Amino acid sequence: MNINYCEELRAFKIDTENNSYIIAIVDDEGFPGHVYYGPKIADIPMYMLRINENPYVPSKNNRDRGSFMDTFPTEYPGNGLGDYREGAVEVVDSEGHFAVCPVYKSYKIVEGKPALKGLPATFESSRGKAMTLELTLEDKPVGLEFILRYSVFEDSDAIIRSTEVINASDKSVFIKKAMSFAMDLDGEDYELLTLHGSWARERQMDIRPIGYGKTSVGSVKGESSHQEHPFMALVQKGADQKQGRVYGFNFVYSGNFLAQVEKTQFDSVRVLMGINPNGFKWELKAGESLQMPEVVSVYSNDGIGKMSRTFHDVYRNHLIRSPYKDKKRPILINNWEATYFQFDTDKLIAIAKEAKKAGIEMLVMDDGWFGHRDDDNSSLGDWYVNENKLKGGLKYLVDEVNKIGLKFGIWFEPEMISPDSDLYRAHPDWAIAIQGRTPVRSRNQYVLDLSRQEVVDYVFDVVSKVLHSANIEYVKWDMNRQITDLGSYALGKENQGELYHRYVLAVYQLQERLIKVFPNLLLENCSGGGARFDPGMLYYGPQIWCSDDTDAIERLGIQEGTSLVYPLSSMGAHVSDCPNHTVGRNTPFATRGNVALAGTFGYELDITKIPQEDRDSIPKQVEMYHKYNPLVRTGDYYRIASYRENHFYDCYGVVSKDKSEALFTFVQVMGRPNYHSRIIRLDGLDPEKRYAIEGEEGSYAGDTLMKAGLQIQNLWGDYQSKLIHLTEC
Ligand code: DGJ
Q1: Which of 17, 37, 488, 524 has the fewest beta carbons under 10 Å from its own?
Q2: pLDDT reported for residue 213
Q3: Does residue 582 lie within any of the structural domains?
C-alpha cells in the first residue's frame, strides 16, 4: 500500500498490493484527470490523458475548449460547461445558475482513514493500516469545495472513495447531486453485472452488454431495495470466476442510490455511483459541509471470484464492527413461519423446550408481541407488550426461556407507525406525508418522519426500554415498507428534498446509539426479507436477513447473488418447513440444512409440529454447524458451478486461508437420466497439498481435485445435496 505525489507530473499514484490508481492535474486551470485504474504498474502513463493531442487542451487552444471538456477523462465531472456526459455534481447557486466545474485546489496524504461523520464507513483495524489521499477541488464562481477521499488498506486491494462538499461562499447553495464516485475509463468491451430482484427473490445476478448512452440501476424507495442493488461491476467480455478484468463498485449506504455507466461517442465509459439525485435537494448554507457516503471499489485482474473474495475480506476486516463478527452466532429458532401472529407465552415456551432438546441456542420472538397486534394492521409504534398474548409479561417469558437454557431475541420495526396505534393518535404529524394528499399505505402502515430529532429520540427510548426490561440478547430490526409521499411537517418548503437522506442518517444514528448502549447485542437487520442488505447496515450489525424466501432451491440464487459481494458470515439463512411457505416446494430436510449452513444458520419452523424424522435430524445439523461454521465464517469463497447458468446443479465452497481445510456444497437441483455421477472441478485448494475427503477412503492431491475434479456419485432425485469436507492430510 502506498500513495505518492509526483511533483513533476502533478500526479497522484495510489498503489495497493496488486493494483494502481492514478490521477493527474492538468493544464493551468488544474483539471483533475483520471489516468489509470487497473493492475499495478510502475510508471505514470500520462499519455492516457491525451493532453499532447492538440487541440484538446484549453491553455493551448481555447478555441476548442468544448472538445476538451467533452472528452477529457475527468476524476469528478461538473455540469453545464461543455462536458455533455452526465456530471457527478449538480447545483443551483445563489444566482440560480447550474454550472459547476471542480478543479484542483490542494492535496493532503494522511496516515489512517478519517471517519465519515454520521455515516457507516470502512476503517483501519488491527488487520491492516490505512492511508488516505484527500484531493481538494474547487469551483470559485459558485464557492464550493469538494474533498475527494481515496483510502487504501495494507491488507486489501479495495480502494475506498467518498466526496465531501463544502460551501466556502457566504450564501446558500442547493446541492442537487453529489456523487460519491466518478471515473472515466478507456473503452473496452465491458459488460455490466448487477443484482436485481423482487420481494423473496433478492439479488439475482444479471449481466448485459453496455450499449451507447446511459445504463443504470438505482433505488428511490428510501432503502437500498429488493429490486436493484447498490452494486455494479464492469466485467470484461468473456471473463468468468477465474479470469478476466473486473471492476466492482459497492455503495456503503442504505437509502436511495444511483449506479450508472455511460458509454460515450468515443467508446469511453463513465462510471457514477452515489445518492440518487431523484428526490434529493440539499441546502448547503454558508460554511456548511455535506459528507456523501463512500464507495468500495475493487479491481480484479483474475475474474469475478477474486473480486468477491476481496469484498468479503474488506468487509470482514474493515467494516463489520460487532463483537460477534469473529464468533459463531447462536443457532436461533424464529417463530415467524412457525406461528405468524398467532402465539402466546405457552406456545413460545413449548418451542423453546423442543428447540433446546435439539441443540438450538436462541429463541427469537418475531412480529406480533406488542400493542394489540394480531395481524399486520395495527400497533406499530406502540412498543409495549401485549399481555393478552404474553401472559406474565416479557420478563417472565425471557426468564423462562433462559431457564430452559436458550438465549432470547426479539423483533422490532422501529421506523414505522400504524394508523391504528396510540402513537399515531397522539402524533399524526410524525408520519411522513404530504399535507393535503392522502398518504399511500403499504402493509397498512406509514413511515415515521425520522428527520425530526424528537421522533428519533422517542424511538430510541421506547426500544431501549424494552431491551432494558429483560435479558434480551438479539434484535431483528425490520422495515416492511418503502417510503412514499416525501413530505415532512417539520422541514421547510426548500428543504423537503433533504428528507430521504436525513431519514437514512437517522436510522444510522438510532442503530449507533443502540449498539453503544447495548454493546453485546447481536443485531440482525432485515427489510421485508432482504431489501436493506447493504454494506451500510453491516457497519451496525454483523448479519442481515437475506430473504423471506427460505426455500432451499430459491436460496441458491439469492445466496449466490449475495455472496458475489458479501461474506457468508453476514447472510441470514434458516431451515424452514415444507411445503415451503413462499413457493410451495418440497425439498429434503438435509438439503435445507446444507444450504442454510452457508449463512448464519438457524430454524424458522414449528419444531413441535414438524415430522419426527426432520426433528431427529436437527442435532446432526447443529453438530455440522459447530464443526463447519468457523471455516464458513472466515474462509475464502469459491463459486464452482451455478444452477442459474446450467439449470441442473449448483456448487460452491469455502477454503480456509491456509488451505488446510475446505467445505464444498453440491446441490443437484434436477436429476437427469443417465447422469448417475457428475465430475466437478474444485477450486482454491493448494495444488501441492493432499486432502482427505470426510467419509471416504484415501486422499487426493489438490491439483487432482482442481484439474481432474471430484466425482459426485449416486444422487437420486431432485433437490438432493452433498457436503464435501476436505482436510489436509
Ligand atoms: C418481514 C421479515 O422478513 C419476516 O421475517 C418477518 O419478520 C416479517 N417481516 C414480520 O412482519
Answers
A1: 17
A2: 97
A3: yes
- The CATH number assigned to the domain holding 714 equals 2.60.40.1180
- In a domain, residue 327? The reply is no
Candidate list 15, 548, 650, 718, residue with the active-site label: 548
Q: What is the CATH number of the domain that holds 275?
A: 2.70.98.60
Stretch 190-206: mean pLDDT: 98
Q: Give 109-113 contacts, CB < 8 A, sequence gap 24+.
A: 109/3, 109/4, 109/5, 109/133, 109/134, 110/134, 113/151, 113/153, 113/160
pLDDT per residue as tens digits for the range 333-358: 999 999 999 999 999 999 999 999 99
Residue 423: strand, helix, or coil: helix
Among 478, 534, 636, 650, which one carries the catalytic annotation?
A: 478
pLDDT of residue 55 exceeding 70: no
Query: pTM for the complete prediction?
Result: 0.98
Ramachandran region of residue 528, left (φ > 0), alpha (ψ -120 to 50) or beta?
A: left
* Cell output for 485: 409521499
Atom 6 of ligand 1: nearest residue by CA position = 336
Q: What is the CA radius of gyration of the chain?
A: 27
| Residue 50: pLDDT over 90 | no
| Residue 608 shares a structural domain with residue 661 | no
The set of protein residues with a Cβ atom below 6 angstroms from ligand 1 is 336, 366-367, 411, 478, 480, 526, 528-529, 545, 548
Is there a single domain that holds both residue 612 and residue 679? no
Q: How does residue 54 score in pLDDT terms, banded at 50, 70 and 90?
A: low
- Atom 11, ligand 1: residue with shortest CA distance: 367
* Centre of ligand 1 from the C-alpha of residue 477, in Å: 9
193 inside domain: yes
Residue 41 shares a structural domain with residue 70: yes
Average pLDDT, the chain: 97
- Domain co-membership, 608 together with 676: no
Ligand 1 center from residue 529 Cα (angstroms): 6
Residue closest to 574 by CA, chosen among 551, 557, 543, 540: 551
Confidence grade of residue 60 (pLDDT, cut at 50, 70, 90) = confident
Is residue 578 domain-shared with residue 615, that is, in the same domain? Answer: yes
Question: Can you give the residue range of the structural domain that contains 303?
Answer: 2-318
Is residue 323 in a domain?
no
Q: Is 366 a catalytic residue?
A: no
Question: Cβ of 645: how many Cβ atoms within 10 Å?
Answer: 10
